Amino acid sequence: MKRKVLLIYTGGTIGMEKDYESGSLVPFDFSNIFKKIPEMKLIECEVSVHPFKKPLDSSDMGPNEWKIIANYIGKNYDQYDGFLILHGTDTMSYTASALSFMLKNLRKPVILTGSQLPIGDLRTDAKENLLTSLYYASLYENDEAVIQEVAVYFEYKLLRGNRTLKYSAEYFDAYQTPNYPVLGQSGVHLNVEKDFLWRPNPDSKFEVDDHISTDVLFWRIFPGMHLEHFSEIPKVKVLVLQVFGSGTIFNTEKTRKTLQQLRKNGTEIVVISQCVSGGISFGKYSNSNIFTKIGAISGNDITAESAITKAMHLLDNPNYSEPFSELFVQNMRGEVTGKFGV
User: Is 113 a known active-site residue?
Assistant: First the structure.
């Protein structure tokens, strides 16, 4: 039985080719993808292509585009066995994280991939990324999808989407999940680490929840920073605060008063770490105790991309009855370590 995969092309380097008159990279007609990569026809799956009308650079991808993708997957969920999204690399981790929260109780693979070099380049990584992603997007055993989550495939590695971060703008091996194991690797064999895969509640039904609020601010602290700037910004409902190490910040009276005032103004403060690996541990050092006192939320070992999109999805979402602070610490799609992220 041939599996059916819907390929959604949003834009990015993978869909570019060089215009030899200008020397610039321009999008090519993605309906000709089978001519560019005839090997696609050799894979045991049927591929339907749905390109964005106007291909977008990944820096132009945001909440509106996330909603379009999520709802298009929802609309076609019953007609396809898997979904492959071709995306620019710079914001792929944001899109993968957002989709993981918007696609509830997912039981089919949603794979995102892209490339560092255009598909027409002699040394391109696009072909391998695209072809192997199709394999993962159509991988079934005993009539059940092996991958039942949003994942990123890049340079021989399958990674949990909401755990990824782009750490290289230069190398083909551009993505990491520092706080979670690799889900699979492609070599001579196509391997999957089944013990690390996410599984939804077996009694739940797939649905799309495309709620996204943009009333979220991200701020990275640094030595010598003037916290007075916080009092000058417009009121925001959620502040994702990226702090030092396992959760420390300047131990001053001004820090305490500034953060307390933010909380009095109704701002939820989510604390995440500037470290690539590891996470937040309130109370480990005395300079983290301020966050416990003001009722800040620990992001544990969540990535910045996942923290931002999770906050955007949960904030003022009418489909949840629990308070934001209780929802955020839950491990909803495998984005943090532990049952409730603690």
Answer: no
